[in-house]
Input
Amino acid sequence: MKERGYLFLVVWIWCLGVSAGLIICGLFLFPRASKVYETVTVDAGPIVITMDQDISQTNGGVIATSRVREIREWVIRVPKYAIRFKNDSAYVLLLNNGNPYDALVSIGVIGDEFAEVVSGVLFGDAIVTNIKK
Output
């Protein structure tokens, strides 16, 4: 009976050593991702520009009215927050094979949420919106 207990203890200590070795190898020997890129995809859709929003309150609740100034349908668009401006030029951060780079873009109409991109990106391109370390 003592031999079984001794054998169990030896196997348990061996497994513990192997597990610790694997953890140490995983922590120090294998590369880890240092940056995570949050992206959006360039798509096509409408751009809505509203103006003259009026909010009035009544006894039954709140009524909001707004007039749509312009609608552009089926244009190449990107979210407004993805566009950066430097020296009177517009840029987006494109992701190519895991590497981000600045791409000069020409902006058309800027709506409430999206901006029309006339040139500089293609439908389906990945645009970096945030970099997490």
Q: What stands out?
A: The chain has two domains: 1-32, 36-132.
